Amino acid sequence: MSVNLQKGQKVDLTKGNSGLSKIIVGLGWDAVAHTGAKGLFSSLLGKNTADVDCDASVLMLDENNKLQGVTNLIYFGNLKSKDGSVTHTGDNLNGEGDGDDEVILVDLSKVPTNFKKLLFIVNIYDSTKRHQDFGMIKNAFIRVVNSTNKKELIKYSLSDNYAGKTALIVGEIYRDDSEWKFAAIGESTTDDSLKSIIAKY
Questions:
Q1: Which parts of 18-158 are beta strand (E)?
Q2: Structure confidence by residue, pLDDT tens digits, 110-123
Q3: What residue numbers bound the domain in which 126 lies?
């Protein structure tokens, strides 16, 4: 049975899930419908939502919460970690369709011991140029699925008002002694690029 989390909550991933190693991390969102005359014109053309290109990324952080080199950043430009423990399945340019919009595969047993945390971030590509922010996005979520039996373990739906914000620190999977846990973060920033975000780490 899946656990629905609230902002700030933490939950065990591997404790109580004997043998859990391979997981699927799905991130999803929907575009908000346009309003006004522009929206009416768009709907006449059969399209009434804005194309907002959200990108999911994973920062593999050490015990000091630091990113030791860009090779430990997994995103649309670097789809797989060197050790093979984290794999991004590819970029979704508009968030259309139901379910997960971007998917990241993680093999917890392969994550090297020097990495203590996997930080999941979603940012809007080229947000400044496109004049876009997360006020144009709704129904954002992150969920963790057991890769073996495809059962959803946890889900965190981001319900805050993120208007004016262009990046979301969604959640993290982190080591706790020999176990792994998940924390629902849901913090937002005005970083206008992935480069700006990783500079903080």
A1: 22-31, 54-61, 73-74, 86-88, 102-107, 117-124, 137-146, 152-157
A2: 999 999 999 999 98
A3: 3-198
